[in-house]
Every structure is written in C-alpha cells, then in structure tokens.
Amino acid sequence: MNMTSGPLFGKIAAFAFPLMCSSVLQLLFNAADIIVVGRYAGNTALAAVGSTSALINLIVNLFVGLSVGANVLIARSYGAGDLKAVHKGVHTAMLTALVGGIGLIFVGVALSRPMLAWMGTPEDVIDQATMYLRIYFVGAPSLLIYNFGAAILRAVGDTRRPLYFLTLAGVINVVLNLIFVIVFSLGVAGVALATIISQTVSAYLIVVCLMHNAGAFRLVLTELRIDREQFREILRIGVPAGVQGMVFSFSNVLIQSSVNSFGSAVMAGNTAASNIEGFVYSCMSAVSQTSMSFVSQNMGAGQYDRIDRVVFQCMLFTAAVGIIMGGSAYLFGSQLLHIYTPDPQVVTYGLYRMSVVCTSYFLCGWMDCLACSIRGLGASILPMVVSIVGACLLRIVWVMTIFQWERTQLCLYLSYPVSWALTAAVHLICFLVIRKKLRSGQPAAA
Fold first, then answer.
1. 106: helix, coil or strand?
2. DSSP state letter for 444
3. What is the average pLDDT score of the chain?
4. How far apart are CA 135 and CA 128, in angstroms?
5. Whole-prediction pTM value?
6. Beta-carbon contacts of residue 397 (< 8 Å; ≥ 6 apart)
7. How many CA atoms lie within 13 A of 82 on its CB side?
8. Count of C-beta atoms within a 10 Å radius of residue 118
9. What string of DSSP letters covers 304-317?
10. What is the rounded distance in angstroms from the CA atom of residue 18 to the CA atom of residue 11?
11. CA–CA distance from 134 to each of 164, 197, 411 (Å)?
C-alpha cells in the first residue's frame, strides 16, 4: 500500500480493519485460555492465568517495542524508496526477534515465581500461575518472530496476511484448549501448551510468507545478520517504546498486586473484565499502529501536510472505536462476563471494574494514537518520557498514596482514566510542537 498519495480515509480503514481483526485474534489466545479454565478448571485456575498477564507484558514489552522500531524504520525506508535499507532492516529485525526470544526463555523461567511472590499472589494461586508462566515463556521465540514479521508486513502496507495466519492459529488454540483441559484434564498447563503451539504455527507461517515475498522485504535465511546502522536505528526508536511498555506493565503489576489484596474472587472478576477490555483496547491500538505506519511513510516522503490529516483522522477513528466498543462492552458486561465464569460474585466484581474502565477507554486510545504518531515522526524518547511520567509514575503514586487512604476497588480503578487524560493532553502539546519544528525545517526531538 502506498500511503503517501490518494484519499486517506479509505486507505486508513483498509489498513486498520485487518489489523484490528489480527489484534482481536491474538487476544483470543488468552481469552480461550481464560474461558476454558474458568469454565472447566475453577476460579483458582482462572485467577492463576489472569494474574500472569501484567507480568508477561512486563518481561516481553521491551522486545515488542523493538518491533515498533523495526516497523518505523522499514516504513520510512520504504516511503523514501530506499529498498536496500528495507532489505537490511528486514534481516536485522528477524535475527533480533530470534535471539531475543531465546533469551526470554531463560529470563521468564527464572523470574516467574519470584515475581509472582513479590506481587503478593495468594498461596492457592501461585503454584498454578508459576506453571503457566514457565510453559508460556518456552514459546517466547515464536511470539517475537510473529510480532517482528507482522511489523515488517505492516510497514509496507500488508495487514491481511497476518490476519489469515492468526485465524488459523486461533482455531488451533481453541481446539487444543478443549482437548488438553477437558479430555486430558491438564488444567493450567494445558492452556499454556495450547497457546505456545498455536503461536509457533503463526510464527512458522509468517516466516514462510516473508521467504516467498518478492522484492526488498523478502526474507533469505542465509542472509540473516545484524546490520549495525539498522540495528542502532531500531534500538533508537524501539528501546524507548519498549521501556515505556515495561514501565506501563510495572504500574499494572503494582495495580494487580493491589487487586490481589482483595482475594481470589476479585482477582477472577478483574481477570475476566480485563480480558473483555482487551478487545476494545486492541481495536483502538490497531488505529494507533495505523497512524504510526502512515506517519512514518509520509515522513520518509516529506509529506508533512498529509501527516496532519493522518493524525486527525486516526484520532476521530480511535474515539469512535473506543466510545462505541467500550460503551457496548459495559452495556452487555454481565452477559459477556458470564461467558468466562458462572459465579455471580465474580461477575459483579468484573462489572464494577468495567463501569470505570470501559466507559473512559477512548482516552487511552487518544493517548496511544498521539504517542505512536510522535514516534512515527522519528521522536522516540519524548513520548516515552511523557508516558512514563504521565501514565505510569502518576499511577504508581496514586496506588501508594490515594489508594492507601481509600482502599476500595473504585479508587484503584480511577487511576486509569485520570492518567490517560493527563498523558493524552501532554502528548498533543508535544505533537504540535514537533510538527511546527518540522514545518520550519528543524529536526524532530530525540
């Protein structure tokens, strides 16, 4: 897809909708785990799987950030017509994914139980949560290879093939969940095994896809090597994005620890509600990723007026998705939560969280859309600093001060919309300042 010319909205929609579907399918991996264990293995198993999400994100997000760096770098090179740089970027990115994934196996297995203990995970939950995490991290290479491969395809405008691969992997995941948990009674271990097998399938398919592509972004396994200049640029853009994601996850780990203090029933309700909210977030995030790819290509082509239109239309798109989907999720929250668990008490706790988060989720979409747009302009440190201070540090301070004075679930959940709104406002100011610099011929901030 050529993002630097022609009508914008149709191209944005054509790019974003397959990406939304891909993101939703990725979430279905975790949703299938949660639904199956909630229905067939009980609330303790449900709490065990759910309590791992923030910790998984904390450890994985640095490398997911590097895939963002690869996306921006390759999209910018593609927009500028530098096909040699595209070729080098593809091979540098995929080797980074492989090496990083192997490293994550050791890190994840070693840190699983100590981190869960630090989070205050209850004794009736921690053994199953540790088992799930350790099995999950064995599949880390497949997880990163898929994410980096999908980032490469998005950089050149292809969001459909990753959707096809995830569709097949998602079906495999659901079938294996049912077999491992219901037929073989493997419980938490069964859903973890189903997840890593399905992730391996999606990683294999995306590697084969890249190997059979024509042109500069074709993957040749014998040419896998780290190009220093490309790797340095991926790090420059990706590390701040990854650090931002890690700090976000740390703040969520802290919130999860606070949720854990209310007991396993609240943990289970929080898990189910968070999973439903994830579908709303993934659709908004798809628009943010669209904005980043479009801004990157147009940045490479020097189309600054078009960048303004891209960001404005993506902001409107994000708001529409957040308000419609978030409102619908809360409106039908009771019915949706009953899919995860038949326990009415757990449903009540989950609906309580959704009443705060789902109704204000569009603010999170705006925050991410503006941060991704700034990153697409080539400024990587600024959105990281703003996000860490505004959304993460504020949230941590909230938990350590306001929540300590008023230890209620409502007070804890209010930390989300407050931090989203403040951070989005600062991101908007930063975008306007950088845009003004670019129009006057000055370089973007670091």
1. helix
2. P
3. 85
4. 11
5. 0.72
6. none
7. 15
8. 12
9. HHHHHHHHHHHHHH
10. 12
11. 28, 14, 33
CB atoms within 10 A of CB 428: 17
Contact call for residues 90 and 74 (beta carbons, < 8 A):
yes
Q: How many CB atoms lie within 10 A of CB 261?
A: 12
| Stated length of the chain | 446
Comparing CA positions, the residue from 420, 401, 421 lying closest to residue 411 is 401
| Residue of 415, 420, 328 lying closest to 370 (CA atoms) | 420
- For 388, the 3-state DSSP assignment is helix
In this structure, what token pair is assigned to residue 111? Answer: 């840190």
How does pLDDT run across 155-181, given as a tens digit for each residue? 887 878 888 888 888 889 888 988 998
- For 273, the token pair is 């509600």
121 is written with which tokens? Answer: 């995970």
User: How many whole angstroms separate alpha carbon 243 and alpha carbon 247?
Assistant: 6
Percent of the chain at pLDDT above 90? 26
Residues 169/198, Cβ–Cβ less than 8 Å = yes
Q: What does the pLDDT look like over 89-118, one tens digit per residue?
A: 999 999 999 999 999 999 888 988 888 888
Sequence-distant (≥ 6) Cβ neighbours of residue 315 within 8 angstroms: 366, 369, 370
> Which residue type occupies 352?
Y
Cα 440 to its chain centre, rounded Å, is: 34
Sorted by sequence, the CB contacts under 8 Å of residue 249 that are 6+ apart come out as 54, 55, 57, 58, 61
Residue 442 has pLDDT above 70, yes or no: no
Query: Within a 10 A sphere around the Cβ of 20, how many other Cβ atoms?
Result: 24
Q: What is the DSSP string of 114-132?
A: HHHHHTT--HHHHHHHHHH
Neighbouring C-beta atoms of residue 404, cutoff 10 Å: 11
- Contact between 287 and 324 under an 8 Å Cβ cutoff? The reply is no
CA-to-CA distance for 155 and 327, rounded, in angstroms? 32
Instruction: Evaluate if residue 446 carries a pLDDT over 60.
Output: no
